[in-house]
Every structure is written in C-alpha cells, then in structure tokens.
C-alpha cells in the first residue's frame, strides 16, 4: 500500500469522525481554538485530494481519489449533527431526568451570583451540559423548563436540549427566539439560537 493511499484513508476517516467529536472538542478546545482543528483536518484532506487527482492522471491510480470521493459523499449524506444530538440525548436522558427532579423539588437551586436562572451542576452531573456544566432554568407554571447546553457559544449564540414541563414547544423560552426547534421525545426538544 503506497503512502498516498494510506494518507487518503486516514484523512477520509478524520473528516467522517470529526463531526461526531466536534461538540466535545469544541467544549475542550474552546470556540477560539476549534477553527485550527478544522483547518488541520479539512486542509489536509484538500491537499491529499489534490495529490490524489494528480496521481490519477500521472499513474492511473484511482484508489486514493476513490476513497476521498466516497468520504465526500458520506460527509454530505450523513446527518452528523442529528445523530450526535440523538446519541447524546439517549445516553444522558436518565441523568437529565434526575436533574429535572432535583430542580423541581428544590434540591438544585440557582447558585451563580451574577445570574438568578443559572445552576452550576455538581461534578457528577457536570457532563450533562457543555460549556462548564451550567443549566438555565425558567419557571413555567408549577414546574421548571431546563436548558442543558450542547454548545455554549459566545454572547447569545448557543444550542441545547430543553426539558419543557408542559410539552410546549419552547419558541420563546430563556429570553430567546430559537432559529431551530426539534422535538426529541415527550417534553424534550433540541433548540438553537443565533
């Protein structure tokens, strides 16, 4: 196996795997460093793609280009964000329900001095909300709506999983008009603001 074929396989795998890991990487690296990861992964893919085209014409070796074309097709067709969100929701649903119960029974109360709607989760629940382990609560009737961040952007750009106690679509919750709302299950929605 030649080196271009090996690097073609590796770069193709990276552009397929990166979308599955990008939310966790963004939480780890921050929004400011993540573009460098994207530049390395996608930049190397483009360079190898160009080298694969050159190899096709010079040596009639179509394998590296074929692998990269397959990766491009998969990258276009696979709804990575939807898969990641649904996996995160299913994997953490029971723990998030525990948090909802603790918020509604008063065990978890706002504990961040500068925001009366913010709860910094204890260590055992911190992984449920990206960007520091904070959740946002909003009183709705007798219960609370709760926002768990999947991406906690800069200023008011964020996305997350919302528990809506009355199973109402959270169109104007948490002081935001959401640009994307998708129902995940009874009382649970994925939301994104811009």
Summarize the structure.
By secondary structure, this protein is of the alpha+beta class.
What topology, given as strand order, has the largest sheet? Answer: 1-2-3-4-6-5
Sequence of secondary-structure elements: HHHHEEEEEE
- What shape does the CA trace take? elongated
Specify the helix fraction band.
40-55%
Return Rg in Å: 21 Å
pLDDT < 50 stretches = none
Total domain units: 2
User: Averaged pLDDT, please?
Assistant: 90
Can you tell me about this structure?
By secondary structure, the chain is of the alpha+beta class. Helix content is 48%, strand content 19%. It contains 4 helices and 6 strands, in the order ααααββββββ. It has a 6-stranded antiparallel beta sheet with strand order 1-2-3-4-6-5. A hairpin with a 5-residue loop joins strand 3 (143-152) and strand 4. The longest helix has 27 residues, at 3-29.
């Amino acid at each position: 196996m030649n080196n271009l074929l090996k690097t073609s396989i590796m770069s193709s795998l990276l552009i397929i795997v990166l979308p599955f890991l990008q939310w966790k990487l963004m939480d780890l690296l921050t929004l400011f460093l993540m573009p460098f990861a994207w530049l390395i992964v996608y930049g190397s893919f483009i360079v190898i793609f160009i080298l694969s085209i050159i190899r096709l014409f010079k040596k009639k070796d179509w394998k590296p280009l074929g692998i990269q074309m397959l990766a491009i097709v998969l990258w276009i067709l696979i709804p990575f964000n939807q898969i990641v969100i649904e996996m995160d929701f299913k994997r953490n649903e029971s723990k998030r329900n525990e948090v909802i119960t603790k918020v509604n029974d008063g065990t978890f109360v706002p504990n961040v001095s500068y925001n009366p709607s913010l709860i910094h989760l204890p260590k055992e629940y911190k992984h449920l909300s990206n960007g520091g382990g904070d959740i946002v609560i909003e009183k709705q009737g007798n219960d609370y709506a709760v926002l768990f961040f999947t991406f906690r952007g800069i200023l008011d750009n964020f996305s997350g999983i919302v528990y809506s106690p009355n199973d109402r679509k959270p169109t104007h919750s948490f002081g935001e008009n959401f640009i994307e709302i998708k129902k995940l299950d009874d009382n649970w929605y994925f939301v994104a603001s811009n």
